[in-house]
Amino acid sequence: MRMSTVVSKMTDDSHMNLYGNFEILRNSRFTSSSEDDIDRLLDEKDSANTKRATNNALAAFGAYLADKDKPTDFEMLGSKFLDENLRTFYVDTRQQNRELCKLSALRYGLSRHIKAVMGVDIIHDQAFSVSNEVFKAQAVNLKRLGKGSIDHHAETKCG
Predict the structure, then answer these.
(1) Is-contact 126 79, C-beta < 8 A?
(2) What gap in Å lies between CA 134 and CA 19, rounded to an integer?
(3) How far is CA 91 from CA 39, 88, 103, 135, 142, in A?
(4) Confidence (pTM)
(5) What confidence tens digit (pLDDT) does each residue in 104-122 have?
(6) CA angle 154-158-159, nearest 5°?
(7) From CA 156, how far away is CA 4, in angstroms rounded?
């Protein structure tokens, strides 16, 4: 249904919430969105690629912790545990072929998850200053080794 058709069907005292549901609100310009509407909005804010990158980062960090015989439920163990283990994770992490890997995607994926679950910002919070210094040092090291640069692709022409 076209938006102009939907709008024309609305009356002066009906309003549409986030997901197109009409609700009658007398003398109000505001709708009443349910908790489900808000939860759905938050769940759908990230693209499929962002969700995949976050899941890959969580899988890598979980595998790292398991490999080091450490608890994998890091969300329950606090900032100190997280900072100590991120510090070594940034240095020890390799691709599956054992070569050094770019860490930015892993770091941002972990950051998104940890911020959502724990309310902690591993990139900006002072509690993570040690792991952030190690991250920066490893990024410099990767650049020296030719692994830290961005690979630009040739422009694709359509048509």
Answers:
(1) no
(2) 44
(3) 36, 5, 9, 8, 10
(4) 0.65
(5) 889 999 999 999 889 999 9
(6) 145
(7) 36
